[in-house]
Amino acid sequence: MNENIENKRKAEENLDLDSNVSNKRSQIVELDTKGEELNSFVKVAKKKLNGKQLKFLKKNSKPEVISEIKSFYSELLELGIKDLKTLNQKVWFNSNAQEELEWCTNPPLTAAREYIVSKENVEKTETKTETKSDSTDIEKTKKPEPLKPAIVNLYVHKLLTNGLGLSTVETKEELLKLVKGGNKAWFYAVPFALPGEYVKAKVIDNSWGYSLCDLVDIVSNKSEKRIQPECKYFGKCSGCQLQMVDYKTQLEFKKEFVKSVFDLENPELMSSLKDCEFRDVVNNATKGFGYRTKITPHFEIFKWLPKSQTSIGFNYTNRREIMDIEECVIGTKSVNEGLSVARKNTMEKIEEYVRGATLLIRETNIVGDNDSKKAYVLSPKEEVEEIIPIVVAETTEPSQVNKVLNLLDDLSSSENKDSILKAKKLSEAAGFKVEIKNLRFKFLASSFFQNNNLILPKLVYHTNLLINQASEFRVLNGYKKITQLADVYCGAGLFGISMSYGFESVVGIEISKESIKNAVTNSALNNITNCSFSQGDATDIFAKIKPNHSKESTGSASENVIALKKNAKGASNSSYPKGSLLEDAITDPANKNVCLDPSTTAVIIDPPRKGSTEEFLKQLVDYGPAAIIYIACGVPAQARDLNYLIKQGFIVQEYPEDTSESNLSRPDDKTNKKAIYKISSVTPFDLFPQTYHVENVVALIRLN
Ligand SMILES: C[S@@+](CC[C@H](N)C(=O)[O-])C[C@H]1O[C@@H](n2cnc3c(N)ncnc32)[C@H](O)[C@@H]1O
């Protein structure tokens, strides 16, 4: 029997076996670690349980939640437990049932959740009390009593990809003995704890097979990597997770985070990537403070608390209660100036608020004739402006690339006005052409723009370099040079505009009307004439392209062009009907017809945290561009998307030696046109120092 069908059948059996506990509030089920099995299992479980028990893993669970759950179980495997099924390892769909906690070897003692003073709880109290007739007012204004939490002593095995320390009551060896003796493991997730440490922790909540804890104390084996955190709020505020270690260690952790997420999704692919392909985390050569250009502190109004005592800041770690924050060390200087003013303004009119609000503080530049000055704005509707020094250098020669990277390191620690002079000197001394352009980007304070400008020059340079390298590789293998760029999920045009100097034409697509307007204005602001922007869903960019490897298709890959045309005279040879998105949504001031031949086009995709869609990815490979650069802030979703391409056979591990027998073909081969890619590099970028977040750039080169 096919292994998948067998797994589904077993999952069904397990649910049947457990039906005697179905009256209880919690259902015990068996879980494997593989993504696909997990999905099919969830489908079966949902059907059986009518969806009501699937509190933590619904069909639409966020990829990061699924990844977190998978992390726990992959960790079990790493600890030496090779076969979860043989050991009958079980997990929980719903951990609220106290009585079933006994089922584990080491359940939290009382598993009580500390009562959290939050909007959610106040609302719950309100809902409850509304059904009661006369005690409503008393209940609403009473501060809820905290429950008694459990205290546990733990050993920390490793840091999870969300920055939490994966812990158990035993060391790895002791745990293995226990589990191999037929017992079940229980895990604890402890923030700010480091691998190898013994810690005391307070159980806050129970989740899928683990308890969420607060760190109380480090009992012994304090990690040598621990340092004094820079921020006085660190350890309580939920904003940063890694300030307890130095910056170099943070970068090492982040590389491991990305590796383990990729490994979970596709271990074979991970093992096939060479060290040189899986690169170190790129940073901006600072300690990683004072970088964030946007912060969003918030506050809530409670009936039991005098308004003058309202806290304005960020959530406490592990709870929805807000911590009063006067300064944020990862914010830029001007953002912190804005924070003081926003706090003062809010407290002055606090009596007017009934519920609470989120404040927006965003850096901007006031641009004069000869210079610019950093400032801040406090209104989401205001337009802000950022100036990003962009390096234009075509070289791919490694020693020259290193020189440019050094220049970029210097730049992040100096004023923008020095940069052009430095680039000129570098150009003269190194003997290759390098230019720096201080590009201006305007956008609404509330709309998307990256939040760390210090590293953006490197991110853009690197992305450009990857395309230049892909182009060289293609030329060496007998294909044409890459001359065109599609910037998908383009926001206010950061990548497309910054990289436009190296391409004949650039098109961008973006769903937000505001952002697309900004992208158009930004290209004009920087005197760029070869960029066109289109508003719509990313998938629409392929709406009219015939699959280039379908049976019906008889044309060559180069027939599958994206033609973006302005509704203008001379556009009559468009293959798209009048009124289609690609025909009329172009707001290109240069009034140009832009055709993107896949064999000479690179596509950048930079989707939101939830990743792209199968529909988009399928059409992307049908289109078959010469290179794809996938930039992601949601690494689990990126790994999922790449895995989809691997499973469809679009990504291969090695260039096949015998192309005559393989399904590879030249672009003008009319019989077989399936696009095949290789991952040429995986490079994490630290856009979010001190936090567990990381931006990951994956380059795919088309081999055929
Ligand atoms: C991570 S941001 C990247 C923006 C831009 N590349 C940059 O670096 O500034 C993702 C962008 O995708 C846009 N977006 C979200 N869903 C989309 C969709 N279905 N189609 C096109 N754009 C979308 C968002 O509005 C947002 O601007």
UniProtKB/TrEMBL annotation:
Sequence positions that bind S-adenosyl-L-methionine: 450, 489, 510, 606
InterPro entries: MeTrfase_TrmA_CS (IPR030391), NA-bd_OB-fold (IPR012340), SAM-dependent_MTases_sf (IPR029063), tRNA_(uracil-5-)_MeTrfase (IPR025795), U5_MeTrfase_fam (IPR010280)
Keyword Transferase: yes
Molecular-function annotations in GO: tRNA (uracil(54)-C5)-methyltransferase activity, S-adenosyl methionine-dependent
Superkingdom as given in the UniProt entry: Eukaryota
The entry's keywords: Methyltransferase, S-adenosyl-L-methionine, Transferase
Catalytic residue list: 633
Pfam families linked to this entry: tRNA_U5-meth_tr (PF05958)
CDD domains: AdoMet_MTases
GO biological process, one term: tRNA processing
Homology family: Belongs to the class I-like SAM-binding methyltransferase superfamily. RNA M5U methyltransferase family.
Protein name as catalogued: tRNA (Uracil(54)-C(5))-methyltransferase
Species of origin: Smittium culicis
